[in-house]
Design brief:
single chain, 436 residues, 4% helix
Length: 436
């Protein structure tokens, strides 16, 4: 909603072009207002769409739920210190996982979610900070985009959540992406019910609309760190924290590049298909760096680095969910996997690369024809084995792997059902199904 103002130059007779920006203060938002007043003002300003609202650098605004339901809405800070939208605990009181109510979510971009399913288009949020008041026992979302074309969140920082999801996308298409966003510092120690327990930096297609998933998202240079379940929460529901979660096998053609993810349970929890993941660096994970499950297929992971994992560097598995296809034809190329069971807290099966049917006896899909190629697996001093394939079919393959480290007198390559094969670097013509 920036206006053009033409001013006459008295001496030359020429006109000068000036852009008059619309700032939040111009629509009634103020650094001195409470969250409800600011949310009402901002919601009214974006209600009809076709508006660009600038946010003054370094300002701090109390803010509540802001629905965005019309096309062409841009909220951004162009330069200087990022402004902060503060989410008071008294405003955001939600305690349930599936809620998108006003007490659960700040920026709520959405097209029609029923009926004709008409999407909205061209939504931009850029260079903003979303800070939650630190108060446990609540479940929040920072940004949600549902049934939106051309949605972009750039340079967003989100922190202070109890549990919840930083950025949620569902059925987001067109030229859409998440770029250079920093999501960090989530913590809960509540005894959650399993149905309400999930903490994720970026989530894609957990909910889908009109039977359509997202396609072609660009998730570039995300920084996700320190999403933590405390001991009470883990005892209640296990450790439910993901850096990035692509939640459905029909979610496809995405690009994830230059991700830096640390101090979570699962780095990239991936069920999508036909995606390219470039150069992720994932460290200090309590379960797995890369988890490839529930029908994930035909994805390529280039040069992944996983440092310091408790249970697995890479876990590849089938599914117990009805209607899910086999997890197949994924390729991991190059990269390095180092420091297994780094803190000596692993329990049960532990391996550098772990391949499992997942869900026996309820298995409906299995891992098949997945390849790990040319990767260094350095278990360190405490890793019990480099490769463990317990799946019952699939011919999953390790090619030209360099395997070093590991505890003594333990089978470093174990494929008990014989459905896969592993070759070591320098011996590419020789395949092992059981190697001490």
């Amino acid at each position: 909603m920036a206006a053009l103002l033409w001013l006459q130059n008295d001496r030359s007779g020429t006109r000068q072009r000036h852009i008059v920006r619309t700032y939040l203060e111009d629509v009634g938002v103020s650094t001195s207002n409470n969250a409800a007043a600011n949310a009402a003002a901002l919601s009214a300003a974006v209600a009809r769409g076709n508006v660009t609202l600038h946010v003054r650098p370094g300002n701090r605004y109390n803010m509540g739920h802001v629905p965005i339901t019309a096309d062409n809405v841009r909220i951004l800070c162009e330069r200087g210190d990022k402004p902060t939208f503060y989410m008071p605990a008294a405003t955001f009181t939600n305690k349930t996982l599936k809620s998108y109510d006003g007490n659960a979510l700040l920026f709520d971009a959405r097209g029609a979610l029923s009926g004709g399913f008409e999407p909205i288009s061209n939504i931009l949020l850029e260079n903003l900070i979303l800070e939650s008041e630190v108060s446990d026992g609540r479940y929040l979302r920072g940004i949600a985009a549902r049934n939106v074309n051309n949605f972009n969140a750039n340079g967003i920082e989100i922190f202070g959540f109890p549990t919840g999801i930083g950025i949620t996308l569902g059925t987001v298409n067109g030229e859409s992406g998440i770029r250079e966003c920093n999501i960090h510092g989530f913590h809960t120690n509540t005894a959650w019910r399993s149905a309400d327990a999930q903490m994720t930096g970026i989530e894609v297609d957990n909910e889908r609309y009109n039977g359509l998933a997202s396609e072609g998202l660009k998730i570039l240079s995300p920084r996700i760190d320190n999403l933590v379940f405390g001991a009470i929460a883990i005892a209640a529901v296990n450790d439910q924290t993901d850096g990035i979660n692509i939640c459905h096998h029909s979610s496809r053609f995405h690009t994830i590049s230059d991700a830096r993810i640390s101090r979570v349970a699962e780095g990239i929890d991936h069920f999508g298909s036909d995606c390219i993941i470039n150069d992720p660096v994932i460290s200090q994970v309590r379960y797995a760096g890369l988890k490839i499950f529930h029908g994930a297929s035909r994805n390529i992971y280039y040069r992944p680095v996983v440092r310091d994992a408790v249970q697995f560097f890479v876990a590849i598995g089938g599914s117990y969910v009805a209607g899910v296809p086999d997890t197949k034809s994924n390729i991991i190329k190059g990269g390095s996997l180092t420091g297994l069971n780094y803190d000596k807290t692993a329990k049960g099966t532990t391996a550098g690369v772990f391949i499992t049917d997942n869900g026996v006896p309820k298995r409906v899909a299995r891992p098949k024809w997945n390849i790990v190629q040319g990767t260094l697996i350095d278990e360190g001093a405490h890793g019990p084995r480099a490769w463990y394939d317990e799946s019952t079919f699939g011919y999953n393959v390790g090619e030209a792997l360099r395997v070093i480290g590991g505890a003594a007198n333990v089978k470093r390559i174990a494929i008990p059902f014989g459905g896969g094969r592993v070759s070591l670097a320098g011996a590419a013509s020789t395949y092992y199904t059981d190697l001490t």
